[in-house]
Amino acid sequence: METFRNDDSEEAVSENSSDETLRLRAECERFQNLYLRTLADLDNFRKRVQQEQARATQAGKRDILLKILEVLDNFDRALEETTGLPDSLTEGFEAIHRQLLSLLQTEGVTAIESLGQVFDPACHEAVATAGNPQPGFRHHRGGILSGLSMA
């Protein structure tokens, strides 16, 4: 049996095969780039969610600590009025007070000594202003005269 070869048809098949290979490589590269972008987007999303969760946790912690500070301020005022109470009761109140202070310190809350200091809006919150009570009275302008709260 005699076989005929057509060199033109082999050349055409080879050219079509080469075009198909180039097209498939380009498509593969496009999918690779899409995959890498999607992977980067997912990584960015994870980081953003972690940051948002950390902010939400911090905000919740801050809100609770501020409420505890309000309770502590009221507790401080109550401790000032313990005269006449049995010593055991006063000692119990003072132990609870120390426990509250310890809890706050564990959470990173520290008291800021402000009486007599220059007012710093980054640390202090002005709730009222006071004029000179006597004509000869002198005080440092912008000083803190009394404190109301640890919060």
- Strand proportion, as a percent range, falls in under 5%
Query: What's the helix-strand series?
Result: HH
β-strand number:
0
Shape: rod-shaped
Q: How can the largest sheet be summarized? A: none
Rounded to an integer in angstroms, the radius of gyration calculated over CA atoms is 38 Å
- Classify the helix fraction into a percent range: 55-70%
Structural class: mainly alpha
Query: What is the average per-residue confidence, as pLDDT, rounded to a whole number?
Result: 81
Number of helices in the DSSP assignment: 2
What's the number of structural domains? 2
Distance between the termini: 103 Å
Oligomer: single chain
Low-confidence stretches: 136-140
Summarize the structure.
The chain is mainly α. The chain contains two helices and no strands.
Task: Walk me through this protein's architecture.
- The chain is mainly alpha-helical and 151 residues long.
- It folds into two domains: 96 residues; 40 residues, no CATH class.
- Helix 1 runs antiparallel to helix 2.
Notable traits:
mainly alpha; 62% helix; 2 domains; 151 residues
What is the strand and helix layout of this fold?
Layout: H1 7-79, H2 87-106
